[in-house]
Amino acid sequence: MTSAPARRPRLGVMGGTFDPLHHGHLVAASEVAWRFDLDEVVFVPTGQPWQKADSAVSPAEDRYLMTVVATAADPRFTVSRVDVDRPGPTFTTDTLRDLAAQRPGADLFFITGADALEAIVSWKDVDLLWRLAHFVAVSRPGHTLDVRALPAGAVSVVEIPALAISSSDVRRRVREGRPVRYLVPTGVLQYIVKSGLYRDGDGPARSAR
Ligand code: ATP
Ligand code: MG
């Protein structure tokens, strides 16, 4: 009797600055995991994000911990330190190569929002990216997806429930004392309060709510 060939593990990769992680990230990962029958989605917080080099980004360790807190309850979600621990700016080719080396035989699915996909063409070694992973571009309010210029079959487009949440807006809200509850997971809100992240040193001392 011959047994069926083992199915190759299907690994989603959700890269991001996660400063902080919010419900838009979780819904994107969850929806793509379902649509593509993924066994796991690994969240990969960036090290020093080169495309954001001009703006201040919170310490990698804070962003890593918030990502762990936010994903801890979901058995499909894990967090990787490959980008946080690699010195220098983060390039997605390095992320995918490191994860592929850690998971030989797995098929990789890189999950990206519509805005991030627009930036992909400016990434280093863009042709190599398509060989390292299948790309899944999710819809994001305020951004349109145009995959016509990209190689056929390299990118799948997935419509997800629209959440007009961004980390920039969450940071701004904390700075201004406006609510972020329900935009971010409760544990992330608690981490923001405890760490004092996003509070403007010169502004009024307000805590996140
Ligand atoms: P910032 O405002 O600081 O850029 P962000 O909300 O865009 O933060 P990132 O960490 O930059 O979050 O995004 C990580 C990935 O998640 C990107 O591919 C981004 O397009 C995607 N993403 C973020 N928010 C959403 C959302 N609300 N809906 C769909 N995709 C999202
Ligand atoms: Mg962004």
Please write out the topology.
Elements: E1 10-16, H1 23-35, E2 40-45, H2 60-71, E3 77-79, H3 82-85, H4 92-102, E4 107-113, H5 114-120, H6 126-132, E5 134-138, E6 155-158, H7 167-176, H8 186-195
Parallel strand pairs: 1-2, 1-4, 2-3, 4-5, 5-6
Give a summary of the structure in a few sentences.
With 209 residues, the protein is α/β, with parallel strands linked by helices. The protein has helices at 23-35, 60-71, 82-85, 92-102, 114-120, 126-132, 167-176, 186-195, and strands spanning 10-16, 40-45, 77-79, 107-113, 134-138, 155-158. It has one domain: 3-Layer(aba) Sandwich (Rossmann fold), CATH 3.40.50.
Q: Which descriptors would you attach to this protein?
A:
binds magnesium ion, alpha/beta, Rossmann fold, 209 residues, globular, binds adenosine-5'-triphosphate, 15% strand
Describe this structure in words.
This protein has 209 residues and is α/β, with parallel strands linked by helices. The chain has a single domain, classed as Rossmann fold. The protein has helices at residues 23-35, 60-71, 82-85, 92-102, 114-120, 126-132, 167-176, 186-195; strands at 10-16, 40-45, 77-79, 107-113, 134-138, 155-158. Strands 3-2-1-4-5-6 form a 6-stranded parallel beta sheet, sandwiched between helices. Strand 1, helix 1 (23-35) and strand 2 (40-45) form a beta-alpha-beta unit. The mean pLDDT is 91. The chain binds adenosine-5'-triphosphate and magnesium ion (MG).
